[in-house]
Amino acid sequence: MTKKTMMMRGGWCSSINSHLLFRSFPTTRPTYSSSAFSSSCYNKRTNYKFFFTAITMSGRDNENPYFETPRSVIQKVLAKAQHEGEGAIVRRSIGRLEIGSVDPFLMLDEFSVSLPSGFPDHPHRGFETVTYMLEGAFTHQDFSGHEGTIRAGDLQWMTAGRGIIHSEMPAGEGVQKGLQLWINLSSKDKMIEPRYQELKSKDIAQAEKDGVYVRVIAGEAFGIKSPVYTRTPAMYLDFTMKPGSQVNQSIPESWNAFIYIIEGDGIFGNPASPPVSSHHVIVLSSGDGVSVWNRSGNPLRFVLVGGQPLNEPVVQYGPFVMNTKAEIEQTFEDYHLCKNGFEKATHWRSRP
Which InterPro entries match (predicted)? Predict the structure, then answer.
């Protein structure tokens, strides 16, 4: 389907903002096997359960005794700043050309946004978005009437399923920062009803041991478990390590996993490897766990994300992720004609 064809299809408003429609959402890319979008609809109105443990220690440089097959770094890429949405700045790690997707993960952005910039009304279908605030606050509104504000340390886990149109905008003055992760849904779940899981910072499971602090967004670490249900089995851990500390984190062997460094410098996988600095993404090899050392004089903060690969075809066009080209074409038709999940968009716009 060409750009010209899509612009001529029923339901399009002649004044649609085309630079928003074709902005640089990730598209179909290579997959490791081991956001602003104007709605044409409203323009018409002109357990899984798993177990793994984490062991911490300080000051040990010996060969890794904790895993039979320790994971190592197979790819390292710096996430460079780029413009997205309406004036937002993001550092895209997963989903960029050098890496592509890491099944089941489609994209990870570290965003930095100040008013009046943001991500006005745009749709999603076929996957989940996980928004985790680092600084400031973001307000969310959708066409079903769901709205709320998440602040530093808060989490929103949104399953778009068959269709959502929503906005994500800064909720205050200054710079608002966070991470947004896109997780693919299996073919059997792509057309489920949308749902939300939202946690305040105080309700996110957390623990500290031997100079290592962890917030368990999804999965389990240090013997504590997140209450978040992950339809695609996944783990999402936010670690902060004091200088001189070490952590050894188990990961199910069949899962893909990566690390994104938020702050500081760390050594990952092999104690003899050079340190990796902030804003780098590290894709890990297969194995039953990963070790991390903080040998710097400053704190190290990173997220470890892992998940069970779906091993299904991925056809992606912007914020729509399906399994076939025909399903993408059907999604565009549903979106333009406000049907099959997008019915509520006919007369909806988010409030300023």
Answer: Pirin, Pirin_C_dom, Pirin_N_dom, RmlC-like_jellyroll, RmlC_Cupin_sf
